[in-house]
Amino acid sequence: MAERNPVKQGKPAKRGKPAKPRQAARPDAAPAQQAGKTAAAGSVAAGIRRKSDSKPTSPSKPKIQPIAKLKAGPKAGLKPAPRVSAAAKRPAAAGRRAALAPERVAELLRRLHAEYGDARCALDHSSAWELLVATILSAQCTDARVNQVTPRLFAEYPTPQAMAAAPIEALESLIRTTGFYHNKAKSIQGAGRVISRDFGGRVPQTMEELLTVPGAARKTANVVLGVAFGKAEGVVVDTHVFRIARRLGLARGETPQKVEQELMKVIPREHWIGFSHELIHHGRAVCVARRPRCADCLLEKLCSAPDKSWQSGAMDPAGSE
After folding, report:
1. So where are the chain's domains?
2. How far apart are the first and last CA of the chain?
3. With respect to CATH, is domain 94-119+236-302 assigned 1.10.1670.10?
4. Whose CA is closest to 278, among 61, 116, 64?
């Protein structure tokens, strides 16, 4: 018998709601709908034209009226900036001129030299090379601590060549107590290499050449040039000189570099080297950072610092006794 091919039966269709018969469009509906669409499109286009007409062709920033020209009052909300009259500026300018008067500066130098005329560099050294190394080590460290470290350091590595060839770990061990010994060891070793290679083992005697030596910034270069070679190329501005120069009104700079430039304009060049040493000694002994000993200060009557701890009476800007 021949087999019948089985017929696949699909799932019965789901019964749903019968579709609503479409209503025939009215003969007059098409023109009305077309007219409505045309009118809507026309109104949209007109709105777009109105918006585009209201916008500026090229955007421009609104002009901001200066505050000084605005009228004061509750409606304005802003008041004009107060003007500083020329009369109000005169006292500050006059005080600045008085502080830098040649007579006052000369009196300051006279009194400092009379008290600290024998002041010398506090770093122990026997050569320009030793002074250079000691000055590099004195950064963020007292001179007394440096003087405790350098004898053994120079005994083991007395020359730039020996310092350049020294193991960095050995240098760090010898100078550890001066602080920042990692960077300082690299600086003095680098200084030995540059001086040995570029300057024949001798410390250079110019500011431009010294500034190429690792660890020798402008303050260090001024110390070496002034103390070792007697050359006044600038003013040494350490923490004491920086503080006292501003207290005395000789400088107003916020950095040692700016203070040095100001001092070089008001201090005669022949006093640059001695002035720094005298001011450093005065800062250590009397004009300390906190609670300066103004009652014991020989410059007290010439000083109008705002942080004075004691005032004797009337100021003596002319320096008369």
Report:
1. 94-119+236-302, 128-228
2. 149
3. yes
4. 116
- Tell me if residue 118 is catalytic: no
pLDDT, mean of residues 182-206: 98
Quick one: pLDDT at residue 94? 73
pLDDT tens track for 234-291: 999 999 999 999 999 999 999 999 999 999 999 999 999 999 999 999 999 999 999 9
Classify domain 128-228 by CATH architecture.
Orthogonal Bundle (1.10)
pLDDT value at residue 312: 84
Annotation says 238 is catalytic: yes
pLDDT single digits (tens) 20-38: 555 554 545 455 555 555 5
Candidates 124, 143, 238, 316; catalytic one: 238
Measured at the CA of 198, the angle between CA 140 and CA 223, to 5 degrees, comes to 35
**Model-level pTM?**
0.69
Q: Please provide the size of the chain in residues.
A: 321
- DSSP conformational letter for 22: P
